[in-house]
Please model this.
Amino acid sequence: MKTGLITSDTYQNHDTGPGHPEQVARVTVINENFKKINNQNIIWKKPSLITDDIIKDTHDADYVDLVKKSFPSKGFSSLDGDTIISPGSKEATFDAAGSIISAIDGVQNKEFKNAFCNIRPPGHHCNQNKAAGFCILNNIAIGAKYLLNKHKYKKIAIVDFDVHHGNGTQDIFYENKNILFISTHQYPYYPGTGSEQEKGKFNNILNIPLPAGTSSEEYLNAFEHVLKKLKEFKPEFILISAGFDAHKNDPLAQFNLNTEDYYTITLRLLKASKKFCDGKVVSILEGGYDLQALRDSTKRHVDALLEFN
Model:
């Protein structure tokens, strides 16, 4: 079996302005690296055209309408202090959400075993009705709702290993017994949420807050709690919010993971999930702001996806 790599050309038009860490080059360096490697087991695919009804399963209708009207005809605008948008951001935003639909359908149709969506803008800080932290739509939440509503799954797990807490995803699924949300993150840190006390209405939230300076060994030890919770929940499909900003070289956080850790983390998730979901895994890019670390870490993440096919 193969691994899908879903990406668009429109990400290049999402201009966040000079000096903004969530820049075009983040996706470009990853795509160029995979093109150079030219692995025949990677299937390149474009995002699906996403419909409003799919988005509005996750986001308030008023918010979706507001977002559509907010993209400027020229120059820059902002949806919050960090979330800058430009004319080309509209296509990029809806293609980012469409990528996870394309990936899920590809797994369901057995085009490939698993998939990685290399897109921007990211999504996990955006909740039902508010953009935040570079995120305009919550791509992974849209994917989870699509799995429930379209493909009729009953148990979906979302694992978020971005260094920042996925507060938007947690908000959306806090009272949804069909979704398990697990997040490892630096704490206390942006966005300020993600304490162990935040457990969800159905004990369906597991936060693993870790201090600045967390080493590879400390992180991987803590990651055992992720695997234990997955085994208890027995998900039928796993979605990964794949942020690579816990890398020691990342400028926006203070964890000390190295490139190889992302291979280890991904492989552990895949092994743990095989019993329940037969390796049905889709991951989507969230953070990661050192370009070299991002390029190399995504390579090792996809290496694990390929190896476990």
Observations:
- The mean pLDDT is 98.
- DSSP finds nine helices and ten strands in the chain.
- The CA atoms of residues 182 and 226 lie 7 Å apart.
